[in-house]
């Protein structure tokens, strides 16, 4: 009898492993200061999975608390004991750098719904690493291009002193044709910008560019609006996403920011996404939610064509990017980063809700600056 | 670098300093009187900001919001003193750190559960917004000036409370010899709850005042808590006067260091590298200040004990 039981158990184990189920591991930030971003990515991603109606996909979701060491532990756990096929979800570049090179080296696929550090776009690129959002510099390059086209000739620029902050100022300077009235690195997590605003006032600049994601941007915009300095401000979408605009309030009205996505991009996929996201979660989606949604749809499109176990076929299917993106046409460059248009948006008020409206294209079909260094 | 800019930066440093003082005063009182390391002080700062944002959102009145911040933080402080902190007085500092760290996690998750993960909106009232022109033509935000005045008034009020009132005598006596004042018939348990509630109310007030120009979000208290600890170590643990001087020193060092160090490095470095090195060094400036003070005076500027 005991033998029979063991045989049945062995059979059962054999049966489940033979069953073609795809396991996706999502490591993202669900608690602490940056939780809003991870929650949006997760909700967008799970919405697409639910809409596909497929029940052979399992998503394991874990919270990295925005800490690199925890992200690394979670990645090890997902690869070794959960045995996931695909990983995704990381928001922050410093966490991405800690996790992605090691999981792709172990033969797993990683699709980034947000972080796009320059180190992984150039020499550090990998055939199993795909970025569905953008390379870090892209939105800042677009801000530089917009500032030039708007006729600004003397910008004061600031960003936090960490890798993505340095990428941001590099990106802006790459596309901005004017002079710099000042260049300031702030502390990561800084909440008081009185000193920087005083420098802006004294600098004689005609425009201000800043990259201060999350709560840092809320603080800066409120204090800037209260300071009486009235120079025009440009920035990437990260300080103007749907999650934080309500907390900034009137201080953000009229500010031009750059994004690869907005809720008014006119295509059926996007309209359906915005409507279903709002119906499901009771709030407007942010660009992070759109990135999570696109990432899931890209995976689904590739799974329709190939099994993950056939890595070469699955990789080709991902590279083809044969899915309906919320951004309209979507294609990858040679380093598996998107080639896409980046829009200039303006913050407006719709009824009681602050949101963005597209006012023009800042960069058309833009590829990143590192693709040439990528030898895949 | 003009004189106007320097004066403006000194004002910014002062404003930062007096807000730090509101945090540090409660922390140092609690440590001085009860010998307790309260890591959850940052949570009380956050509770004040959230209470203010909720009341401002419901009523539209900033004054009511400040009142709510004071009241809610004081009540939260009194409650945690009576339920948790009271059991920790006789324990080792490590137990206190562990228990109050647990409180941070509980308050953070509780706040997220109540208010969600997205930052809340709390803005400066219209009558305090915008800049004013000071003598000499300096444009300075009225709200920040108000913060300086409020901070100084609270400091004065605390000084009167501790030096000139009966409760103040009991608090000072409690710092020196808790057995003796218990023997003299003072209700030491009530006194401890009161001190804790005062400290909590000050933290809540700071959270609400600062929340109006920053972002009201879960976890906003912890970075300030670290600075407040630096302040009380510099000022001398248990000393309100030390907390005041320490807070102004830290506020001015942090603000002026952030401006002048990059400028200094530009004298002999390429500008891009100078701003990066200068900013990196500026973020260390207050810790360097702390080390120097501790080398000179191991118990802090006004500290009685090590």
Structure report:
The complex is a heterodimer of chains A (376) and B (306). Chain A is built from twelve helices and 13 strands. By secondary structure, chain A is an alpha/beta fold. The longest helix of chain A has 19 residues. In chain A, helix 2 runs parallel beside helix 11, helix 3 packs parallel to helix 4 and helix 5 runs parallel beside helix 6. With 306 residues, chain B is mostly helical. Chain B has a domain of 209 residues. Chain B has a two-stranded antiparallel ribbon. Chain B is globular and about 65 Å long. The mean pLDDT of chain B is 90.
Question: Outline of this structure?
Answer:
The complex is a heterodimer of chains A (376) and B (306). Chain A is an alpha/beta fold.
Keywords:
heterodimer, A: 376 residues, alpha/beta, Rossmann fold, 2 domains, 8-stranded mixed sheet, 21% strand, B: 306 residues, mainly alpha, two-stranded antiparallel ribbon
Radius of gyration of chain A: 22 Å
CATH superfamily annotation of the largest domain in chain A: Response regulator
Domain unit count of chain A: 2
**Mean of the pLDDT scores of chain B?**
90
Mean pLDDT of chain A: 90
Q: Roughly how much helix do the residues of chain A carry, as a percent range?
A: 40-55%
Question: Would you report the number of β strands of chain B?
Answer: 2
Major sheet attributes of chain B: 2 strands, antiparallel
Question: What is the subunit organization of this protein?
Answer: heterodimer
Percent strand of chain A equals 15-25%
């Amino acid at each position: 009898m005991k033998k029979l039981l063991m045989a049945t158990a062995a059979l059962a184990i054999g049966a489940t492993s033979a069953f073609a189920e795809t396991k996706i591991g999502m490591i993202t930030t669900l608690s602490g200061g940056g939780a809003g971003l991870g929650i949006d990515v997760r909700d967008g991603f799970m919405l697409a999975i639910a809409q596909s109606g497929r029940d052979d996909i399992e998503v394991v979701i874990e919270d990295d608390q925005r800490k690199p060491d925890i992200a690394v532990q979670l990645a090890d756990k997902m690869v070794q004991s959960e045995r996931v096929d695909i990983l995704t979800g990381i928001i922050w570049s410093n966490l991405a750098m800690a996790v992605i090179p090691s999981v792709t080296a172990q033969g797993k696929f990683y699709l980034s719904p947000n972080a796009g550090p320059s180190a992984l776009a150039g020499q550090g690129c990998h055939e199993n690493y795909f970025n569905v959002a953008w390379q870090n510099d892209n939105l800042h390059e677009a801000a530089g291009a917009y500032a030039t086209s708007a006729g600004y000739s003397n910008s004061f620029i600031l960003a936090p002193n960490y890798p993505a902050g340095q990428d941001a100022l590099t990106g802006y300077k790459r596309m901005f044709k004017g002079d710099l009235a000042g260049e300031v690195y702030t502390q990561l997590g800084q909440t008081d910008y009185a000193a920087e605003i005083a420098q802006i006032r004294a600098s004689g600049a005609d425009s201000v560019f800043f990259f201060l994601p999350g709560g840092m941007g809320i603080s800066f915009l409120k204090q800037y609006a209260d300071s009486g300095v009235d120079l025009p401000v440009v920035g990437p979408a990260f300080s103007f996403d749907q999650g934080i605009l309500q907390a900034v309030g009137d201080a953000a009205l009229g500010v031009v920011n750059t994004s690869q996505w907005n809720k008014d991009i006119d295509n059926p996929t996007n309209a359906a996404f915005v409507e279903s996201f709002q119906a499901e979660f009771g709030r407007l989606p942010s660009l992070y939610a759109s990135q999570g949604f696109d990432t899931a749809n890209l995976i689904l499109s590739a799974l329709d064509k190939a099994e993950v176990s056939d890595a070469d076929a699955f990789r080709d299917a991902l590279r083809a990017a044969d899915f309906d993106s919320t951004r309209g046409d979507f294609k990858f460059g040679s380093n598996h980063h998107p080639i896409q248009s980046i829009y200039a948006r303006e913050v407006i008020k719709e009824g009681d809700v602050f949101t963005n409206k597209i006012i023009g294209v800042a960069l058309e079909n833009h590829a990143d600056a590192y693709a040439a260094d990528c030898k895949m | 670098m003009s004189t106007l800019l320097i004066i403006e930066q000194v004002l910014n440093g002062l404003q930062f300093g007096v807000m730090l003082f509101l945090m540090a005063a409660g922390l140092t009182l609690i440590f001085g009187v009860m010998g307790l390391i309260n890591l959850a002080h940052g949570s009380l700062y956050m509770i004040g900001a959230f209470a203010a944002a909720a009341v401002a959102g419901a009523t539209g009145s900033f004054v009511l919001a400040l009142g709510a911040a004071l009241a809610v933080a004081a009540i939260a402080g009194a409650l945690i003193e009576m339920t948790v902190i009271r059991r920790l007085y006789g324990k080792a500092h490590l137990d206190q750190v562990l228990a109050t760290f647990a409180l941070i996690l509980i308050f953070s998750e509780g706040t997220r559960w109540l208010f969600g993960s997205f930052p809340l909106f709390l803005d400066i009232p219209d009558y305090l917004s915008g800049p004013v022109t000071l003598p000499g033509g300096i444009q300075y935000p009225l709200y920040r000036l108000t913060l300086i005045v409020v901070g100084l008034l609270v400091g004065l009020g605390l000084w009167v409370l501790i030096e000139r009132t009966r409760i103040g005598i009991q608090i000072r006596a409690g710092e020196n010899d808790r057995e003796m004042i218990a023997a003299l018939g003072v209700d030491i348990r009530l006194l401890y709850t009161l001190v804790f509630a005062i400290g909590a109310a000050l933290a809540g007030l700071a959270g609400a005042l600062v929340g109006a120009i920053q972002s009201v979000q879960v976890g906003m208290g912890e970075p300030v808590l670290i600075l407040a600890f630096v302040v009380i170590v510099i000022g001398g643990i248990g000393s309100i006067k030390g907390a005041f001087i320490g807070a102004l020193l830290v506020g001015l060092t942090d603000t002026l260091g952030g401006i002048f160090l990059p400028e200094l490095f530009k004298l002999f470095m390429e500008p891009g590298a100078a701003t990066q090195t200068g900013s990196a060094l500026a973020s260390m400036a207050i810790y360097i200040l702390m080390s120097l003070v501790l080398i000179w005076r191991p118990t802090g500027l006004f500290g009685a004990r090590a």
